[in-house]
Design a protein that fits this description.
Elements: E1 2-6, E2 9-13, E3 16-20, H1 25-36, E4 52-55, H2 57-73, E5 79-83, E6 91-94, E7 98-101
Antiparallel strand pairs: 1-5, 2-3, 4-7, 6-7
């Protein structure tokens, strides 16, 4: 299995509610915490816009669960997307902790 955190953070501006979700939201909202935990990985700018970033099982155990705890504590209302391991033809980057795929 591979795992992806999908945080949802709501902000207000002029009495309107906006949702920060979608492409890059994990990195945007949790990036500094990833750095604090020592998770170094690929830069999203190095990949096509439709690339999706996931944790490997080992990465989920080492970093993902803690990031979920942090996101929940910060009120981000995170969801976890789980899927079976991708086909080799979908993988465009892989290391011990993370995997990047083109769906």
């Amino acid at each position: 299995m591979i795992y992806r955190i999908k945080p949802r953070m709501y902000v207000t501006n002029n009495n309107k509610m906006y949702s920060l979700t979608g492409k890059g939201s994990s990195g945007l909202l949790l990036g500094s915490y990833m750095d604090e935990l020592g998770l170094r990985g690929p830069r999203k700018d190095d990949f096509p816009s439709r690339a999706r970033f996931y944790f490997t099982e080992e990465g989920w155990d080492q970093f993902g669960r803690e990031l979920m705890r942090i996101a929940t504590k910060l009120g981000m209302n995170p969801k976890v997307e789980k899927r079976k391991n991708p086909k080799k033809s979908e993988i465009i980057y892989k290391d011990r902790w993370q995997i990047v795929i083109l769906p």
